[in-house]
User: What shape does this take?
Amino acid sequence: MPRVLPAQPGMALADVDTPALILDLDAFEGNLQKLRESISGRKIMLRPHAKSHKCPEIALRQMALGAVGVCCQKVSEAEAMVEGGVPDVLIANEVVGMTKLKRLAALTKKAKITVCADDAGNVAQIDIAAREAGVTIDVLVEVNVGANRCGVAPGEPALKIAQAIAVCKNLRYAGLQAYQGGAQHLRGVAERRAAIDTAIDGVEKTLALIEGAGLPRGKVTGAGTGTYLFEAASRVYDELQVGSYIFMDADYAKNDWTESGIPRFEHSLFVWTTVMSRTRPDIAIVDAGLKASSIDSGMPRVADFPQAEFQKASDEHGVIKMNGTPGFALGDKIKLIPGHCDPTVNLYDHYVCVRGGKVEALWPITARGAVW
Assistant: This one.
């Protein structure tokens, strides 16, 4: 069955069918510029995370404003980025299993690819895949600086993985992956700053051991939208892996940004939805439920109507308590701010790019569903 496109360029936003993923181009482009200005004059590189947008068109626009490349989480995401013209991709994650590693090695023939490792056995497998493909692969040691997902402890454990990489003929030790994901949504500025200070301390101790062992320093890469200026100011980090800044979801909006130095990025990503039922006086049912907006980080917010509360979602329905908000007639269309942008994007095939109330373009979400 052929897919029907959600919109056409030139169409009025009011005529776009729902649910649809709307990208406000003015706010999006403003966010790109704000980030660029906030790091201007600093000796640090930008490597935005493409897992947020999954779209080569956006990646290329980020690179046009100075990004050195992008990050991905999976080999399939990296393949989509490279196929879309992105020449430099860091898979900021571990890749395990020979099937995936062979694809990784093959991709290295088309673009500059870097990957992370936290296990000596995995390092040996990456080396085998690289040798069979006749390539050399850059590998970062992932250090657990507080996110408590992947990564070895700072210090000696990280040094051992670096040494394991360095002795492999088809691998190049490239530095450290040090992302403190748990700090990004700590609400207070002081809390976030303290978490990053701890991360920086672990990175510095690890670098001292690595250089003391005669290995090159390599680069240190990490950071996110909630903390990136703290990492930038440390002079320890070389790359910033910000991602959500381009969209800004409802969960990030709950953070305190006062005196952080981090600019207030605007909401640019919305779920466009229609009021489909109005049988109760203070309740509106919309056609955007679990299949239209991720709720893992909380319910979406109703844009432009601060009193209205999106209370719950089922597969195809969203329940909005209006709390006295006027309007919301049957057939009205409204914007929702997703609770979490990344998994919401993964529900759609296209961004409907809007400027001045009209559709300007449709951008394919090429890496949608790229989770392997």
